[in-house]
Automatic annotation (TrEMBL):
This is TIGR01777 family protein. Signal peptide: none annotated. Gene3D superfamilies: NAD(P)-binding Rossmann-like Domain. The lineage of its organism: Bacteria, Bacillati, Actinomycetota, Actinomycetes, Kitasatosporales. Residues 260-306 form the DUF1731 domain.
């Protein structure tokens, strides 16, 4: 099959491309700065010659978006919004213009669309969309708005020949350098892998192998449309996640951090505490209902496998 992956040069795209190529598929990546023969230039905003790549392709997986691992300044928030909304819109326009449109368009979204909550997990049917929960910083609402506008852009696209799925993905754990698992493991090895702000907040995650398997499953399963949660079925409180990472890395202790220390750390790492403090308790209701079985339903097993692979250099 021919896959087109707009924004496929980042952490998720790199590991998805690796897996799809291993399956024998053709992969074309749309990027603002092409550096390889299968890279095609686009600007993520306007139609151009790149759109021909979608004509006759089998599947499009749009991952484009400014990284969310940054300080949430007004300018960065604007770029986070615009890069996602604009790229989803223009991918829709390219599909609409194609004589032979792809059968399926998987559009990245995020598990952050759901409310910060502890009491119950969020699935697609009964989950609570965020933005109005009390007691959280105002700007967290903006992240939810980004996700909603991102998904709305795909919903709005008039592409009758193409099945549309929004991937409400949790953090994708892969051993790739600079990915979230790599950064968390690094903090653990520094002795800083303890609970943050008490560590009650839930963390949703998905092992890269399950992410790729879910993408294949969604491409192959006709009839599945709309939002689908891509998260392991067992999200866990942050303090338990860090314990699992410490065990996998053979590190006995991790310093706990207060909210205030987390603010300092996030500032030093040029990131934002929402990524650490928001309770994302997301479960894969639709995937499980459709018969998808996770290879890594539990975080301890996922962490052991990823650490072993990183140590052996087998990425
Ligand atoms: N990583 C995760 O665990 C995770 C979890 C849930 C959702 N997501 C979402 O999944 C997507 C991919 O994640 P990732 O971790 O692979 O992200 P990433 O490493 O930041 O890569 C995203 C890609 O988007 C492109 N991009 C950046 N700014 C852009 C802009 N202004 N206009 C058009 N393209 C732009 C970049 O490609 P070029 O520079 O080559 O153009 C970049 O390689 C992101 O939208 C992210 O929010 C990620």
């Amino acid at each position: 099959m021919k896959y087109v992956i707009p924004g496929g040069t980042g952490q998720v795209g790199t590991m998805l491309e690796r897996a799809l190529r291993a399956d024998g598929h053709q992969v074309v990546v749309l990027t603002r700065t092409p550096t390889a023969p299968h890279h095609v230039a686009w600007d993520g905003r306007t139609l151009g010659a790149w759109a021909e790549q979608l004509d006759g392709a089998d599947a499009v997986v749009n991952l484009a978006g400014r990284t969310v691992s940054c300080r949430y300044t007004p300018e960065n928030l604007r770029q986070m919004m615009d890069s996602r909304v604009d790229s989803a819109r223009v991918v829709g326009e390219a599909i609409a213009a194609a004589a032979r449109p792809p059968r399926v368009w998987l559009q990245m979204s995020t598990a952050t669309v759901y409310a910060h909550r502890f009491d119950a997990p969020n699935d697609e049917a009964d989950g609570v969309i965020g933005g109005t929960e009390p007691g959280v910083p105002d700007y967290w609402e903006y992240s939810v708005r980004i996700a909603r506008n991102w998904e709305a852009e795909q919903e709005r696209a008039a592409v009758p020949g193409t099945r549309k799925v929004a991937l409400r993905a949790a953090m994708v754990f892969s051993p790739d350098r600079g990915g979230v698992f790599d950064v968390l493991s690094w903090l653990v090895r520094l002795g800083l892998g303890g609970p943050v702000a008490g560590g009650r907040q839930y963390v949703s995650w998905i092992h890269e192998r399950d992410f790729v398997r879910a993408v294949r499953f969604l491409v192959e399963t006709e009839g599945l449309t709309g939002p689908v949660n891509l998260a392991a079925p067992n999200p866990l409180p942050q303090r338990e996640l860090m314990r699992a990472l410490r065990r996998a890395n053979g590190v006995p202790v991790g310093l706990p951090a207060t909210r205030w220390m987390a603010e300092l750390g996030a500032f030093a790492l040029r990131t934002d505490t929402e990524l650490l403090l928001k309770s994302r308790r997301v479960v894969p209701g639709r995937l499980l209902d459709a018969g998808f079985a996770f290879d890594f339903p539990h975080c301890a097993d996922a962490a052991r496998e990823l650490v072993a692979r990183r140590r052996s250099g087998r990425i």
